[in-house]
Amino acid sequence: MRFAALLPLLAGAVSAWQSAVPLARHGTALRRAAVHAKEEEVVFTFGDADDMSDSTATAIMGEERELTEREKEIARLRAAEKFIQKATGNAKCNTCGYKYKWEEGAPGIPKRTPFELVPDSWSCPNCKSPKAFFAAETIEIAGFEDNQKYGFGTNTWTESQKSTAIFGGLAAFFALFISGYALN
Fold first, then answer.
1. Which of 32, 100, 168, 184 is the most exposed place for a label (fewest CB within 10 A)?
2. How many CB atoms sit inside 10 A of residue 91's CB?
3. Which stretches make up the Rubredoxin-like domain (predicted)?
4. What is the distance of C-alpha 133 from the center of its chain?
5. Does residue 78 or residue 42 have the better pLDDT?
């Protein structure tokens, strides 16, 4: 009973497919003819960008303007902005991951020896890789590299050192302020 009900649907699907195949062949012929058409007749549209008002066109042209002298100076300064990289004295082996810490030293190297002063003949205690296979650890110091040599020496401080100095100074002032009440 169920099969008998599905038979007319199946027959309708087969006839629809048979009628679609010649249309697909006909569509292929149309596409080939369109390829051989002149280029002047080909028009591409991209959704809403097809119809552009005059105000939109002038806004786009305004965005493509020449940079002002001030904007050129800002771009030049941004290009010159290079933060200084300060060596920490530590290094990490690229082969095995061993970390050389300058406070602890290493076998054959005394304590508190920065990695830059370790001889080139030294090798990793774990994997015996040469010093060239180590990557020195650095920290970035904020500010222009040209300005690092000015000031009281605080320009070469790291962010954490500057924060400690600022908030330590505030804490010392607060303690001094509160100690004034203890005099009464």
1. 184
2. 24
3. 88-137
4. 26
5. 78
Do 99 and 92 touch, CB atoms closer than 8 A? yes
Q: State the pLDDT at residue 24.
A: 47
Distance CA 159, CA 140 (A): 9
The amino acid at residue 1 is: M
Tokens of 28: 């292929």
**DSSP β-bridge partners for residue 135:** 92
What 3-state DSSP class applies to 139? strand
Beta strands in 24-155 (DSSP E): 84-93, 99-100, 134-141
| Residue scoring higher pLDDT (152 or 179) | 179
Over its C-alpha atoms, the chain yields an Rg (Å, rounded) of 37
**Which tokens in the block code for residue 69?**
């002298």
Phi, psi of 134 (to 5 degrees): -100, 145
DSSP 8-state class, residue 80: H
Q: Which residues does residue 92 pair with via DSSP β-bridges, in sequence order?
A: 99, 135
